[in-house]
What we know:
Elements: E1 20-26, E2 32-38, H1 40-49, E3 53-56, E4 61-64, E5 73-80, E6 87-93, E7 109-111, E8 117-119, H2 127-130
Parallel strand pairs: 1-6
Antiparallel strand pairs: 1-2, 3-4, 5-6, 7-8
Amino acid sequence: MTTTDDAWLDAIAWGPDGLVPAIAQEHGTGSVLMLAWMNREALRLTRETGHAVYWSRSRARLWHKGEESGHQQVVHAIRLDCDADVVLLEVEQKGGIACHTGRHDCFYRALDAAGDWVEVAPVLKDPAAIYRGSP
């Protein structure tokens, strides 16, 4: 049931699984940090709290970005694309690390002229030092 307060969520073209892709873009630089997924509750909580909340498909639960690493995303703006099927979050990335690999962003591999994926961004912090129980 949609309440009047949540009516803004109805403008979104949710996928058949109830999810929408969400791009986290760095506020100020415009750099794309990551792609994640949101359900209605994640997007509603993101708006309410001002911190990015996603739906973790692997954990099948809400995921408050930074809940383990401390690398939260403070949301400056929420935008919707022209087809209403992609959400863009303009965020301030706390700790400078958005990726679970310890890099600034998740797009650290580039396709070179030979057709190989090469790493083009450094690891800023060892993931084992970031996450409890990491190998």
